[in-house]
Design a protein that fits this description.
mainly alpha; 434 Repressor (Amino-terminal Domain); three-stranded antiparallel β-sheet; 15 helices
Length: 317
């Protein structure tokens, strides 16, 4: 007589750490829509952690306190989960908090860029192209995002460590700077902002130069519209404004090549100096009233505009 070995049912054998089972527990998940994107990499990291631990979403729910559906959506790769959910998911699976935090930050930055990308929207200028405080504010917001967009609470704590050098940077001040409700009140406050964002001090020099240029152009920033209109009138056409075509011709005659669409007589404009080739932000009003290249110093010495009523006479002719 042949006797078969008696089999008993017991708890399923746990998977050893570092060994991936054949398939993740629970129902098969849908493929990640964009696995090569930042959000896809975050979702893949979370899924791999769950698979390595052999956990179901019900198990994760008990460990994290979040509903299983919330956790499943966090690893779907379709929508960015909150940082708290992603970090809790990662902890429950034994994933590195540093890794999950970095992947979440990259996914957040990617989503932010997509939400702000609009046809025709002007990019924030780099520090060496900053002309006034409006440019400086836009550049500061972009730099904050480039370094992972640290929360204002974190920025406040970082600034406290260097308060003796730069002064404090409160949460409310940081928030107002990021929302462009205010500009730095001093050179030291700009340094505190950069330090709180995580910008290395070796990269501060262009920012200090940007601060100097913005300060020099503060009087133009405060110029009222009637004053700008009065300055524009001698160069305007029948409509009372300088047209885009005429503005380009005036800029070229002054020795600058426009690099973007003309927005207005008193609006910062990205141009390239024909003498040294450097790109910079200027106002057309600056060029026509004695402005010069911020790199090589070339100004209206080559071309002098003599205003005689509505006409313009080139001094080199």
């Amino acid at each position: 007589m042949t006797h078969r070995a008696k089999t008993t049912r017991g708890p399923a054998r746990r998977t050893s750490p570092g060994i991936s089972p054949a398939r993740p527990p629970g129902r098969p998940e849908n493929p990640i829509p964009f696995p090569d994107g930042a959000l896809g990499r975050l979702a893949q990291c979370l899924r791999e952690g769950r698979t390595l631990r052999g956990l179901t979403y019900a198990d994760l729910g008990r460990r994290t306190g979040y509903h299983p559906t919330t956790l499943q959506r966090a690893a779907a790769g379709e929508r960015l989960p909150t940082r708290q959910v992603a970090m809790a998911y990662g902890r429950a699976c034994g994933r590195s908090a540093t890794l999950v935090g970095r992947l979440w930050q990259e996914a957040w930055a990617e989503a932010r860029r997509r939400s702000r990308r609009r046809p025709g929207a002007a990019e924030a200028p780099k520090p060496d192209l900053v002309r006034d405080f409006a440019d400086l504010a836009a550049a500061m917001v972009a730099e904050h995002e480039r370094h992972g967009a640290p929360p204002v609470r974190v920025m406040e704590l970082r600034a406290e460590a260097r308060a003796k050098e730069y002064g404090t940077l409160s949460r409310s001040t940081a928030q107002r700077l990021l929302s462009r409700q205010k500009t730095p009140s001093s050179r030291e406050q700009l340094q505190a902002f950069l330090f709180a964002c995580g910008v290395p001090s070796s990269e501060w020099r262009p920012w200090m130069e940007a601060w100097r240029r913005a300060l020099q152009n503060l009087d133009l920033e405060r110029r009222t519209e009637p004053t700008v209109t009065q300055l524009e009138t001698p160069f305007a056409d029948e409509s009372g404004r300088v047209s885009s075509r005429r503005a380009i011709a005036l800029a070229r005659t002054a020795g600058f090549k426009p690099l973007e669409a003309y927005q207005g007589f008193g609006t910062p404009w990205t141009v390239r100096c024909s003498s040294c080739g450097s790109a910079q932000r200027v106002r057309l009003s600056d060029l026509l009233y004695g402005g010069s290249c911020i790199s090589c110093g070339k100004s209206g010495e080559r071309v002098t505009f003599v205003v005689d009523g509505p006409s313009i006479v080139c001094g080199s002719c």
